[in-house]
Design brief:
By secondary structure, the protein is α/β, with parallel strands linked by helices. Helix content is about 35%, strand content about 25%. It is built from 10 helices and 14 strands. The strands form 2 sheets. A 10-stranded mixed sheet has the order 5-4-1-8-9-10-11-12-13-14, with helices on both faces. Strands 3-2-6-7 form a 4-stranded mixed sheet.
Amino acid sequence: MIITVTLNPALDCYFAPEQLKAGGVNRYDDYRFLPGGKGVNVSLMLSALGMETVAMGFGAGFTGKELVRLIEQEGCSADFTILPQGSTRMNIKIRTAEGEETDLNGAGVPLPLEAVEELGQKLLTLKPGDGLVLAGSLPPGLPQDTYAKFLEALREKEILTVVDTAGGALEAALPCHPFLIKPNLEELGELFGVEITELDAAAECANELQKRGARNVAVSMGHKGALLLCEDGRRLFCHAVRGEAVSTVGAGDSFVAGFLYGLQLHGTMDGALRWAVCAGSATAFSPGLASGSEVRQLYTRVGNVHMI
């Protein structure tokens, strides 16, 4: 069982006008609503690949209830606490016919500390061999060590823990020795105040995160591929799959889900990285999250993992 926690989920609203003109009236025909949030996306992809998962988090208002309905409509289990006040944020995703992308992402609804503590108590029921994915930004008002506190409470349990967040929340989690963290190049560069474009620079920064406590560090690099620094000292690399990117939304989350799927399937870090690149690429080539069949069909096009 893999539990995902999304403290700052969203109802993603996709619109596809012919063009977008600032200050004018823009018309559209095609639109859709999808559940959003990094942990939610991980659970949806895991479920699509046939793995047992539950998406946990918080919802509020009619947008929160719709978010949960959409998750369950996809056949994925959800265990969300619906708060009595506020509304789950809405993210507006505009994709024009010319391929331009404009996103308007909400900040999120503040969470009562007692509600977060109740979620922490739920996580204590995890059993040895279970997985926990803590993913996404923290909503307004929560301290940066929120994820770290979850991890610390589970330290004595044999739980496979993954942290996919950025900034202070990620830094605070490192001393808790998560099994895997997954920054992308931009997030990795922000941690060190530099712009990272080359593989060697990414490897050195990832190595520093290992020194700070992360056991394994995967760096998703978009069309450049993906890097994995393993706790046994190996540095693995997998080239990206060639194809036409439709949208990057959810690709990093699919990468995490693919990693966990590959790890379960093969029991090796090499297999985990290859499936991670496969799932991330499949979603990048799709207008939304890729289906399980789309991921599997793409697997034969993924290159071999090699050491660098």
